[in-house]
Amino acid sequence: MGIQAAEAAAGGDSLLGFLGRKSRYARMDDVLPQEPEEDGGGVRVRGSGSCRRYVFACSVFASLNHVLLGYDVGVMSGCIIFIQKDLHITEVQQEMLVGCLSFISLLGSLAAGRTSDAIGRKRTIGLAAAVFQAGAAIMTFAPSFAVLMAGRLLAGIGIGIGIMVAPVYISEISPATLRGSLASFPEIFISLGILLGYVSNLVFAGLPDHINWRVMLGAGILPSISVAFVLLVIPESPRWLVMQNRAGDARAVLLKVTDSEEEAQERLTEIEEAARITASGKAVWRELLRPSPVIRRMLITGLGVQFFQQATGIDALVYYSPTIFRDAGITLESQLLAATVAVGFSKTALIVIAIVLVDRVGRKPLLYISTIGITACLAVLAAALSLLARDALPRGAAIGLAILTVCGFVAFFSVGMGPINMVLSSEIYPLRLRAQAVGLGFALNRMTSGAVAMSFLSICRALSVAGAFTAFAAVSALSVVFVHLFVPETSGKTLEQIESLFGGGGVTPGEVELRDAERLVHKRLVSHPSS
Question: pTM, whole model, 2 decimals?
């Protein structure tokens, strides 16, 4: 029986299995350890359900900072209407205000790699929330465009730090068979934040123009306050503790997230071995800038998925959805904001499906569904807007198609491109490179997002809104080709198996699978000799 079949028989290859069934322990680090010798003593086994619930809770709490990013993206789509009225900013200033957060957040993502290695994943999560709170407070009371920009830049740094560290933390504390489901949590919190931002627009739009946008931005401080509670609940990453020569503390954490002392010790042994290899390796940035063929292929996959996630136009669509709906024929502000709430509901609802399926169906099939669906929605949206501009399509039909295709776009995005870029980024790199490589990927993600957001209105003015989405559809079609050529299936595989998919490890994926299957059978025979 292959290792994947053995894992499926053991159960626990989805989020539902995580909550309701006992899953076999699977390794998460770069090397396969020697099997520990049986000491003949009894092994204290704790209830597996409590361990699963604890890891689940840690993954949820670590993802809360992503609400901040989603809220900012969602709320700014409505805020920009009222900021323009109150501060009388130009179209270029609108683009700067919207897009600068993505650009500045890439600095936060780059800094987070080094910061999380220096002070720990847990403290970095708290730092991200504190920096965002300061920026949001400045924006709330900003008397001018310049001060508003300063606050937004500071908030962007906090968001950049937060979106990088959570996937790394989750991947380092979760079992491999559930890594995809749990590492998808940040994306559902981004979607939830976007929905909250849209709802905030709708709820506070009735206030005076010089107050409503300030209340909308100020409400974003509330989710970040909850992170203070998070720091009291979640443990530090055991991998970071080992890297700091705190093996005793790492073992204490592993005892909380595993089903037995034997399993905790086995994971600790392999983490220590991976850390030893890390300490003796080349400098991280030197290896990333002058990568080996294996690391280069990993970077092409990781960076490519991060790039295409934003280059297909998701942030332009979310930030400027009122502009899109206005171009389709909706004129009343209340109707514009209500339509954006529908977009937020679509995005949030579909992400749940991805979290359940990402380990059961696999990463690559969901990416195919996502990229093909996005391409189709963008093409139909562009065609509808183009026909409306030529009076070849009734206004009511154009409005219906615009709402349907925009909701379809975010739905397909949430099924694949949204969550899976975080999953892949947190699992394809070796431990020694993970934090910095993930930070580099998110920096590219934010830079692409900023370029799209800051140029969208100008592109629309030059090409029309229909022309802009035609360009996005072409890029989305290229993303389908990229997924086919460069993205391997990583679902249910240990990190050594994943490395072999990129040509590393010196063995084929089939050989690794056979060896792990034999190891699993041997362990079961030792544990249950009567069977």
Answer: 0.67
